[in-house]
Write a structure and sequence with these properties.
11 helices, alpha+beta, 16% strand, three-stranded antiparallel sheet
Length: 462
């Protein structure tokens, strides 16, 4: 298929063969029914309705304080020969099922953003290796740590509106009782949390405050931290008086048309929820799936829908369910890891971030979005891989590659990457979601085949 023809290819749908022209069909060896696929155009998303104009009425907060000069970030990998399109070639599509089989990945979904739109998407395999239900456009995967990038965008909307300051200590907004007494904690800011320079660990132990002590002075080094993101979640809930899911839904999901994304699972989503897998078997108790039947009745009794719960409601439910043990702080709604989404929905988010213009009033302005993707701190001294405000950033020649990856307990793995350069218009992006640990190996191979380059985040030990 020639490049001009391939650019018109925008999706894959299951269908049964018919007597019509089958020249643009291919047989999928990985689907349970060995279905034929036809490449068809996906409808473009409608312009989202603005619901957050009031957030944008106040003056902007400068975001670039302390950022490293862009020229100082240079990739140590060879500058790639970049393809003109990230829509996968037929040879790649036909190889993905075999790669999944070798890596033990039952299901995978992916999407590509080009020319300021979700240009293409595809689904492979099954949501559950026992039931053999196929992955579809509506299948909900765990985004794992890619949740952090979405939360960062929503937080920066508060910063842009003047509701939250990047450089005011978080303790001035809210200091959770579980944090230890340490002077360095009192200096941690939103900027430190989003750039992973707070010094906090990835995760500490409940009931052991010493495990949450910063390892260094905030802003001086890189240390990947889910704890910092979770603390910021509590600050946002305190400021907005909304639970995590309600905040992100009203700030980003609804106006962006991301109707298949949430930070909290409720009963309406269960039938579409993908199962994570371990050793080839579905894990029926992973995430909140295993306790939903016990939690949902409390939402009815209390008169508070699950997706409106704040952290206080989750702790209250946990105490009732297991009164003899301290509640696990990060067990349920968690800005660092609990987002549920589809490949197409996450691609819509990447489209917003990759765009060169802010076309809707609720979006981050160009200056703030560019600052989000500007390197602040290298992950190691002298490293070409750095972190911005919620995103890893790598320079490849004249191209900025920004993104995030994710892993939820080896049950779900995820990749997102954005390329921004002067010759690719509004930028392009790729998202890949998988339901097993082997997704790491599969998505790295796909990224290399589709984008024409490797990236340092695949090597980094964070």
């Amino acid at each position: 298929m020639s490049l001009p023809e391939r650019r018109q290819v925008q999706g894959i749908r299951h269908r049964e063969p018919s007597g019509q022209d089958e020249s643009n069909l291919w047989r999928c060896s990985h689907c349970p029914e060995r279905a034929h696929h036809r490449r068809v155009a996906l409808p473009l998303p409608m312009s989202p309705v603005d619901r957050r104009q009031f957030l944008l009425a106040s003056s902007a907060i400068a975001l670039t304080t302390g950022c490293a000069p862009r020229a100082s970030i240079q990739s140590s990998l060879p500058v790639p020969s970049r393809p003109r399109s990230w829509v996968p070639a037929d040879s790649v599509l036909e190889s993905i099922p075999a790669w999944m089989d070798l890596a033990g990945v039952p299901g995978l979904a992916m999407a590509v953003v080009e020319h300021d739109r979700v240009a293409w998407s595809a689904n492979f395999g099954v949501t559950n290796s026992s039931t053999r239900a196929p992955v579809t456009d509506d299948s909900l995967f765990e985004a794992a740590s890619m949740s952090k990038a979405v939360f960062a965008y929503a937080v920066l909307q508060l910063v842009q509106a003047g509701t939250l300051s990047l450089d005011r200590p978080l303790v001035e907004y809210h200091r959770p009782a579980y944090l230890p007494n340490d002077a360095r904690i009192d200096r941690i800011t939103v900027r430190h949390v989003l750039s992973h320079t707070s010094g906090l660990p990835n995760w500490g132990d409940d009931g052991k405050p010493d495990t949450l002590k910063p390892a260094f002075d905030p802003g001086t080094r890189f240390r990947y931290s889910g704890e910092g993101i979770f603390w910021l979640q509590l600050v946002v809930e305190r400021i907005t008086r909304q639970g995590l899911d309600a905040f992100v839904r009203t700030t980003l999901f609804d106006p962006a048309g991301m109707r298949n994304s949430a930070f909290t699972l409720d009963e309406s989503m269960v039938s579409r929820l993908v199962h994570g897998h371990s050793d080839g078997r579905p894990d029926n108790g992973h995430g909140t799936r295993g306790v939903l039947s016990m939690i949902a009745p409390r939402a009815t009794t209390w008169g508070i829908p699950l997706r409106a719960w704040r952290h206080e409601e989750w702790l209250r439910a946990a105490a009732e369910l297991d009164p003899g043990n301290p509640a696990r702080r990060v067990r349920f709604a968690n800005a660092a890891s609990s987002m549920l989404t589809t490949a197409q929905d996450y691609a819509r988010f990447l489209q917003i971030v990759a765009s060169r213009t802010s076309s809707q009033p609720w979006m981050l302005r160009d200056r703030e979005r560019d600052a989000m993707l500007t390197p602040i701190m290298p992950v190691r001294p002298g490293s070409a891989l750095a972190w911005g405000l919620g995103w890893n950033v790598e320079r490849q020649g004249e191209v900025d590659r920004c993104g995030h990856e994710g892993n939820n307990n080896g049950r779900f793995t995820a990749y997102s990457g954005i390329e921004r350069s002067s010759d690719c218009g509004s930028g392009r992006a790729l998202v890949i979601l998988a339901n097993a640990a082997g997704g790491f190996a599969v998505y790295q191979r796909i990224v290399r085949a589709v984008t024409g380059s490797d990236q340092l985040s695949f090597l980094a030990s964070l």
